[in-house]
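Morning F.,

Quick status update on the modeling queue. The single chain you submitted on Monday has been processed. Sequence for confirmation:
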Amino acid sequence: MAVDVYHEGERAAQRRAGLLDQGGFSGRAIRSEMPEVARKFLLQQPMLVLGAADTDGRLWATLLTGQPGFLDAEDTGTLTIDARPAPGDPLHDRLRTPVPVGLLAIEPSRHRRMRVNGQAVPTELGLEVKLDQVYSNCPKYIQKREHRWEPSAARGRPQRSGALTGHQQRWITGADTFFIATADREGNTDASHRGGNPGFVEVVSPTVLRWPDYVGNAMFNTLGNLEVNPRAGLLFIDWTTGAVLHLTGTARTDWDPAHAAAVPGAERLVEFTITEAIEIAAAVPLRWSDPVASRFNPPVLQGGS
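Structure tokens below.
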């Protein structure tokens, strides 16, 4: 049965949402090998979101970049990545050794994304990932952007803190996109995308964020992981400057329908508590055009939720 591709947390989240049957239908898209159409998609991409746990077990999400072709598949069960996190990246040290990873290839210009999960081992040029799961999923809330290369900017030194600065709070409240890394009880990791109109992520305090969970494909990979493992990592990108903001901490799902009813489009809410923030200026050599918002984005209340 298709539902067998899900672990206990994912099935629990589907039951809580009343969507177990729909999740089973969506699960038919999950494969253990890469079809040729997926390989061709990856060959075209200049960036890849990667989620993993660091040497202390904290989850982080980061961004790997390269000229198209830096992602390839030598066979249907292996993905090669000719890039690795730079020094100062929270996953730089951890990816020197084998580690479970969640990967997300996303193409904002064409509203496409693909998830790849597996076991990564370091290579001379980057990483080799033995695949466990490969699938495309809901592209609804992707904002359209075109990218260009600007490799000349000097990468900034990591700025670390235990809470968000005022600048970082404004960055987040103005964001229309972020990425999230979560893992199940055994450490198998997912990387996923969240999008909405600016303001959809609420800064509750310098250490707490909250966002709505909108209707999707009913797989509940992220929320299912949070049912069994609250650790999570977030990644915000400054699409104009190439700066990144890494956050690590814990997350929980608020399943109270009364709370969700107060936020347009919300099926439920997710609250994230920050334990560390790392900001790096000019971290990636990509820059993006101004966004064209997805027509599926729900409205955002003035002043947040």
